[in-house]
Design goal:
The complex is a heterodimer of chains A (about 425) and B (about 550). Chain A is an alpha+beta fold. Chain A is about 35% helix and about 20% strand. Chain A folds into two domains: about 110 residues, no CATH class; about 260 residues, 2-Layer Sandwich (BirA Bifunctional Protein, domain 2), CATH 3.30.930. In chain A, the strands form five sheets. Chain A has a seven-stranded mixed β-sheet, sandwiched between helices. A three-stranded antiparallel β-sheet of chain A has the order 2-4-3. The longest helix of chain A is centred in the middle third of the chain and has 15 residues. Chain A is elongated. The chains are: A alpha+beta (about 425), B alpha+beta (about 550). Chains A and B meet through α9, β8, β9, β10 and β12 of A and α8, α10, α11, β19 and β21 of B. β10 of chain A pairs antiparallel with β21 of chain B.
């Protein structure tokens, strides 16, 4: 093992150990105020500690008193001998090490030091940091505009980031998030929403029917009866009804074609008022697949249930959503038709590039929808939907809807 | 929704007032109709399916006239009584018939073109491809009463429209374009519906008319027949068609239909009366209106209203079949008032918002896996049996299967997510590795005990794919994820045909079997043409919830 003097050791070798210097000072003055000595002795605390330990001094009332003056000081001799390369006994080595006057010399480090000293480096190796070699070297300067290399990283799909942001805003507005099944009974998807059995949107061209399983179960017979009567003759809703209802069709299982099925399910079991909810989820339509159409896409839909709600409130919510979610104040409204709402409205927002784009479909649920589902007459249900797939495509500049669900990994990695 | 093309000059002529494109568009934008295109000659509009009265250029012009205030209140069409009686016998295939005569019709090219369009749209939309309703127009001067609607043997003969020789009805079904297309509507019956006069069959609804009674530019007087399965719909269609001619100042003559035990005179233009009270109107719209305003607004959208105290009685014209409930009329009032004139207002409703539980967990899973360097992809729930089972080295099991798929790639719903991820790998072999992926998404499982016979479950699947992808790596990822979700878990050796034997583990989370992990079997990789090792996992998040 090799040792060498530390900076401190070198200092004491040249200027004397501090405890020795202290004694020398006291020799002249016998009694000195601690305050004064402190000023004159370098490393006073170390000096005092060792002088006391050696029995040379004592402290009385803030004064230092010399007890005896050592004839010679062994440690100073040893330090000198060490510096001259003389043999040192083990126990003194330990003292010197303990007082950090000497340190072990790592041959490897010495070698590294020699290797790097004065050099200009590109890579910073851990050893350079560990052994303080960085102090003796220069770093290569870089051009910040050199192209970076590819890096692997993880990320959340942009769609989910997009949806998450919208959800947080709706939740902040007091809306409860709800989820419904992807496989639905026609009953929930259409009949409870007062869509007539022969409505064009119920055709095989607009709804995916199932080969297996084909039919669902009837859980609430009374509800089915109310819905049936509403279709046939209006039941207690004071509507004329459709004069027909297809029970076999209502029982059929389908892939839900809109998230309004979730709203009808929620209304059927609602027992808290007032109430606000939303859902963002997938729906399915047997469209021809192209850049603008895919058989799966997302809808955002919600309802507000309370007494004394009116059409102005519906428009108020749409305007609020436009501001909060779509970040625009440019909204206009237009009459629209949905089988389940009356009045119905379509909302358009202004996009700097695309002009007026249709984003909202909304309305107040018809009595033929709410009454059979068990919502009392005095409650109104505002229902609204936002075409978020289109919004996302505009926001993320996506030209082909198929990319959203696609296999294109480069696309998925690129879109933030 | 039906798209209709109207001749612009023709429309303006029927409106009776010169209108610029901008003016037309402005009015239409205040209604439910959408303008798709206006050019020099034509205007293309999208009409919502319930406004059958707007399917004709005459009806559309009437709506514009009313909106512009050029016409007030309900149209009063004159009907003269004719002496024509038509016997309606029992016809099993199409039990209901309705007829009327319009005289002194001035047919020109434009009118004929628009008549064809309205018939086509009524046939497809209201008639459900002639099944529920079929229309026939004939030159009345070529018909020789008495007229009977009856059923007849398929061997009876007729010269069908566009042909020169007589064919048996059964031959028409084989040879005539319309017969081939609509034959299925009568085929299953022993006898088929026809209209007869002295000279024989002149109409074979819902298939074809006779060449003898066909309409030409010279036709002055027209006989209209409508047949179908639903009496209301049949009568409605007849009334609507006749009103088109009435709008063009033709003379409408009524016909008496004689059924086995009753009689009926058609057309019938009788309006229907609805009663509203002011409070329900004001409550639903959030505005207050003066009596005079209520009356004027209703007139603007084609109704007649009287206000007496708190009561509003509204006369609804026969052609507004879409008015089922008072709310429909309240909406009409709102449209007349103008949606742009409502002051939007956000009510104060104190409710507490919240995330759906499973969505919250899903977001957590996304954060953890993304932080571990995995890329999230999003795949369709729709897939096919080959991807779900065959390529995964599994036996096919029962899963949700479509009756009407639009592509062979999408015929069933996925029961697990890993195939969706492997598909991504198989399509990205040209891109740099590692390709470490995950998806948090829904699958649908069969459960006969449930209302929908299915369960929609949220799952997460992840995989690592690079030259050193291993069991150890995926296991470490699974453990970090389970720890992050605070799941108490243990693993058990497991066998699964998609994984290498002896390199697959079952995940027991919170005491339940919640997932699997391991190295994907080379056979599976071969099936997907993936040439890089893959280690993967899949966990059912729904099972971790409760």
């Amino acid at each position: 093992m090799k040792y060498r003097l530390t900076q401190e050791g070198l200092n004491y070798l040249n200027n004397g150990l501090p405890e020795l210097n202290l004694v020398k000072l006291l020799e002249k003055k016998k009694e000195v105020e601690i305050k004064e000595v402190k000023k004159e002795i370098e490393n006073f605390d170390i000096a005092l500690m060792w002088a006391k330990k050696n029995g040379w001094v004592k402290i009385e009332k803030n004064k230092l008193i010399l007890l005896k003056k050592p004839e010679s000081y062994e440690l100073q001799e040893i330090l000198k001998r060490f510096a001259e390369g003389g043999e040192i006994e083990e126990k003194y080595l330990e003292i010197l090490l303990k007082r950090k006057l000497i340190e072990k010399v790592d041959l490897k480090v010495e070698e590294l030091r020699k290797k790097f000293r004065g050099k200009t480096l590109t890579e910073i190796q851990p050893e350079i940091l560990k052994y303080g070699i960085w102090k003796e070297i220069k770093f290569q300067k870089y051009d910040v505009n050199v192209p970076s290399k590819k890096i692997t990283y993880g990320k959340i799909h942009f769609w989910n980031e997009f949806v998450r942001e919208i959800k947080e805003k709706l939740i902040a507005l007091g809306f409860e998030e709800v989820r419904g099944p992807l496989v639905e009974l026609n009953f929930w998807n259409c009949d409870t929403l007062f869509m007539p059995s022969d409505h064009p949107a119920r055709s095989i061209h607009d709804i995916f029917e199932l080969k297996f399983p084909c039919e669902g179960k009837i859980l609430d017979k009374k509800l089915w009866e109310r819905v049936k009567k509403t279709h046939l003759n209006g039941w207690k809703t004071e509507s004329k009804g459709w004069a027909e209802w297809n029970f076999e069709l209502a029982k059929k299982l389908i892939l839900r074609s809109h998230t309004t099925s979730v709203s009808s399910r929620v209304l059927s079991r609602l027992n808290r008022f007032p109430y606000k909810m939303f859902t963002i989820d997938r729906v399915f339509r047997p469209d021809v697949i192209d850049a603008k159409h895919f058989i799966e896409f997302h809808q955002l839909e919600g309802i507000v249930v309370d007494k004394n709600l009116n059409f102005k409130h519906l428009l108020g919510y749409l305007k609020l959503f436009a501001k909060m979610i779509l970040e625009t104040e440019k909204v206009k409204f237009k009459p629209a038709y949905f089988p389940f709402t009356e009045p119905s409205v379509e909302g358009l927002i202004h996009h700097p590039k695309f002009g007026w784009i249709e984003v909202f479909g909304a309305g107040i649920f018809r009595p033929e929808v709410t009454l059979p589902l068990g919502i009392k007459k005095e409650y109104k249900v505002l229902a609204w939907g936002i075409g978020i797939t289109r919004l996302a495509m505009v926001k993320y500049k996506i030209n082909d809807i198929r990319e959203i669900f696609g296999c294109n990994l480069e696309f998925v990695k690129r879109v933030w | 929704m039906p798209l209709l093309i109207f001749d612009k000059a023709h429309l303006i002529q029927l409106v009776g007032k010169k209108l610029s494109d901008e003016q037309i568009e402005e009015i239409i934008n205040k209604t439910k109709t959408n303008v798709e295109r206006i050019d020099e000659k034509e205007i293309e509009v999208e009409i919502t399916g319930e406004r059958i009265d707007l399917f004709s250029i005459e009806g559309f012009a009437r709506m514009l006239r009313q909106f512009l205030g050029l016409e007030r209140g309900l149209p009063r069409y004159k009907v003269r009584k004719s002496n024509l009686k038509i016997k309606v016998e029992k016809v099993e295939a199409r039990p209901f018939a309705a007829c009327a005569i319009v005289k002194n019709v001035k047919l020109d090219n434009k009118f004929i073109k628009s008549l064809i369009q309205v018939q086509e749209i009524l046939h497809s939309n209201l008639g459900k491809d002639r099944k529920k309703v079929a229309i026939g127009l004939h030159d009345f001067d070529k018909i020789f009463p008495p007229i009977t609607y009856t059923e007849i043997s398929p061997n009876a003969k007729l010269v069908p429209l566009g042909m020169e020789t007589e064919l048996m009805l059964v031959e028409i079904l084989e040879k005539h374009e319309k017969g081939i297309k609509y034959g299925k509507l009568v085929k299953s019956f022993k006898k088929w519906p026809v209209f007869l006069d002295k000279k024989g069959i002149f109409s074979f609804p819902p298939i074809i008319n006779s060449e003898r009674t066909k309409i030409t530019k010279k036709t002055k007087n027209i006989f209209i027949d409508v047949t179908g399965l639903n009496e209301d719909l049949v009568d409605y269609t007849l009334n609507l068609l006749v009103s088109i001619f009435a709008e063009r100042k033709a003379n409408v003559e009524s016909v008496e239909l004689i059924f086995e035990n009753r009689r009926k005179i058609l057309p019938n233009f009788k309006p229907e009366k609805f009663s509203l009270n002011k409070k329900e109107v004001f409550d639903l719209l959030g505005i207050k209106l003066k009596d005079r305003e209520i009356k004027e607004l209703f007139e603007k959208v084609g109704f007649e209203a009287k206000v007496l105290g708190n009561k509003i009685s509204v006369m609804v014209p026969f052609y507004r079949k879409d008015i089922l409930h008072r709310v429909d009329l309240i909406e009409e009032l709102a449209i007349a008032y103008g949606y742009e004139n409502f002051e939007p207002e956000v009510p104060e409703i104190a409710t507490i918002g919240s995330f759906e539980k499973i969505e919250k967990i899903s977001d957590k899973v996304r954060e953890v896996l993304a932080s571990l360097g995995l890329i999230e992809v999003m795949r369709p729930v729709l897939t096919n049996f080959s991807n779900q089972f065959d390529k995964m080295n599994l036996e096919r099991i029962k899963c949700v299967e479509l009756k009407n798929p639009v592509s062979e790639n999408y015929t069933c719903l996925r029961t697990w997510l890993l195939p969706s991820l492997l598909e991504v790998l198989s399509r990205n072999k040209h891109i740099e590795y590692p390709q470490n992926l995950f998806e948090v998404g829904d699958v649908v499982l069969i459960d006969e005990t449930k209302e929908t016979k299915t369960l929609t479950h949220r799952k997460v699947a992840g995989l690592v794919c690079h030259s050193k992808a291993s069991f150890a790596e995926i296991k470490a990822i699974v453990e970090v994820l389970l720890n992050a979700l605070k799941v108490v878990y243990k693993f058990k050796n497991f066998e699964h045909k998609s994984f290498i034997e002896g390199r697959c583990g079952l995940i027991i989370g919170n005491g339940k079997e919640v997932g699997i992990f391991g190295e994907i079997h080379p056979k599976v990789l071969e099936n997907w043409e993936i040439e890089m090792p893959v280690a993967a996992f899949e966990i059912n998040l729904e099972d971790l919830l409760c």
